[in-house]
Amino acid sequence: MYNFPDAKRLTIGLMEIVNYHNIEMTLLTKGEYPTGEINKFKCKPGISLVSLNDSFHTKFEPYSAPIVGRINALKKLADKGLDTWVCIEPYPTPDIIEQSLNELLTKVSFTNTIVFGKWNYRRKKISKDIEDRFYEECCEQVSEFGYKNNIKTYV
Questions:
Q1: Neighbours of 120 (CB within 10 A)
Q2: What is d(CA 124, CA 33) in angstroms, rounded to the nearest whole number?
Q3: Which DSSP state fits 155?
Q4: Which one of 35, 106, 108, 113 is least enclosed by Cβ atoms within 10 Å?
């Protein structure tokens, strides 16, 4: 919904229809939620977030909302009592970007649920074995983080 007023208008309209029919709704966006409007709906809002790095964001997600804006909007909804979630998928391998998964997890530790998945477009710079080991370690880290912070995790 970031910088796309028609998308926001259509999304809110669809949410009104879905809520009118009392259908449970789970949302995922790379945009910023309209926090003044969305909390009136019965829904579980989530954001897609795979990196805190602005250069990565510019290169791989050029039309998405700024990282800080996504996190802040979701935090406001969590603070209002909505059941929020974060999708850390596809999480990039170190040959794409060096980053701290723990730092990313800490930024979204206010959520109720974290979904984690791998980057499916392997570069030839790393072997399949190294990639598999990397994701095994990441999955363990996400699961452990969720356990320690009482956050549901799906890896």
A1: 7
A2: 37
A3: -
A4: 106
pLDDT in tens, 76-85: 999 989 999 9
pTM: 0.87
In tens, the pLDDT along 13-35 reads 888 999 899 998 898 988 887 76
Whether residue 1 has pLDDT greater than 90: no
For the purposes of burial, counting CB atoms within 10 Å of the CB of 111, is it exposed (0-12), middle (13-18) or buried (19 or more)?
buried
Cβ atoms of residues 57 and 64 within 8 Å: yes
Question: Which residue shows structure tokens 């477009």?
Answer: 121
Q: Supply 104's token pair.
A: 């990313």
